[in-house]
Design a protein that fits this description.
Shape: globular
Radius of gyration: 23 Å
Structural class: alpha+beta
Order of helices and strands: HEHEHHEEHEHEHEHEEHHHEEHHHEEEE
Distance between the termini: 69 Å
Number of helices: 14
Strand order of the largest sheet: 10-11-15-14-13-12
């Protein structure tokens, strides 16, 4: 009789979220902020792309193979020491031109690299799954590790229950700081009742002004959240996924792009986007044929602002018909964009950085 394989499976969504990243060389952790980390992998004060690639390879193994911190340190420490990226050294800050004595590799820095990248990758992958099943399991419960290492504010947030699309999660979805061990648990209505829980009011904590001394940016950071963690890594990851998907669709053969977009707009992810588009987030690919409408790129996207504004007037099925309207419609191109009338709809589009974006869609008058 064959044995049962109990080997843990790699978290597919977390692995893919990490592997979609590019590379960025930075000097200070403040040089890249919030959603920029969904786009690129970086380690402050690594000035060589080859070395950054070696560190990334070790982080990838930690996520995909489940290697421990001890094994991570065992693999990287001799390599970093051999490359001379270890201990305290003098480095020139490219922003200021100042030569400073800085900390390069160390056991503490390796722990931070390991912990932060794994927690953020897992959070990104977890959120992708949250959006996929949000219709059936719409509630998220904030879960803190209740021991003597837990921040007081995070302890107070424990057992907070809010819908997955509540704006509170935009800045409070864990991890919420360096070495934060908090997470979220996704629940259905039945789960809520069985556990004796109830939906909460969004918790509040006094915000504080934080100045990024590298860029001069000033922003309000919620109490209990470390600067740099005041964003939803999962939603940022989904934005990056949509952006990279649109770029691939632009390069695909027209028939393949059309088929892929039809599949994307039939997916749970599209329904989730329409329920909680979030102003300022990346648009969702809904059609192809952008060059015919005055753009330089083929993919037509639905911006979150448009989805939010027309949420009560149009359904997912309406948006799925945008392709048919573009294919069959009469097009009138102007400096402001284009108007399309066909397949029972009138569409208005604008062009931004070569990409055609839907700004309005409404049923045509009889």
């Amino acid at each position: 009789m064959a044995g049962i394989d109990l080997t843990a499976l790699a978290p597919e969504e977390a692995v893919e979220a990490f592997r979609r990243k590019g590379y960025e060389l930075t000097f200070d952790w403040r040089d890249m902020q919030r959603g920029e980390h969904s786009r690129a992998f970086t380690v402050a004060k690594v000035a060589c792309l080859d070395l950054l690639t070696d560190i990334r390879r070790a982080v990838d193994a930690a996520i995909s193979e489940g290697i421990t911190l001890r094994e991570f340190e065992r693999r990287l420490t001799p390599l970093l020491q051999e490359r001379g990226w270890w201990g305290r050294q003098a480095m020139t800050d490219p922003l200021t031109g100042e030569t400073r004595d800085v900390q390069l590799g160390s056991p503490r820095r390796l722990r931070i690299i390991y912990d932060t990248n794994l927690r953020m990758a897992y959070a990104a992958g977890r959120w992708e799954r949250i959006e996929q099943v949000a219709e059936r399991r719409p509630w998220l419960r904030y879960v803190a590790v209740l021991d003597d290492r837990t921040r007081d504010q995070h302890r107070r947030w424990h057992d907070t229950v809010l819908r997955w699309d509540d704006p509170w999660w935009n800045q409070h979805a864990p991890p919420n700081g360096w070495n934060c061990r908090c997470t979220v648990q996704q629940l259905s209505d039945r789960d809520i009742a069985r556990r004796g829980l109830a939906p909460s009011d969004p918790p509040s904590a006094p915000a504080r002004s934080w100045v990024n001394r590298r860029t001069g940016e000033v922003r309000e950071v919620p109490g209990g959240v470390d600067p740099g963690f005041d964003y939803n890594v999962g939603r940022s990851n989904m934005d990056h996924l949509r952006a990279t998907t649109a770029a691939k669709l632009d390069a695909a053969a027209p028939d393949l792009a059309r088929e892929a977009i039809a599949s994307l707009t039939r997916s749970p992810a599209f329904e989730s986007f329409l329920r909680s588009p979030g102003a300022g987030r990346a648009g969702y690919p809904v059609a192809t044929g952008g060059q015919r409408l005055g753009g330089s790129l083929e993919t037509v996207t639905l911006p979150p602002e448009t989805a939010q504004r027309l949420a009560g007037a149009l359904t997912a099925e309406d948006w799925r018909r945008a392709q048919a309207a573009i294919d069959a419609g009469a097009v009138s191109v102007s400096e402001a964009g284009a108007t399309i009338e066909g397949a029972g709809y009138v569409l208005e589009v604008e062009t931004r950085d070569g990409r055609v974006e839907l700004r309005d869609m409404r049923p045509a008058r009889p």
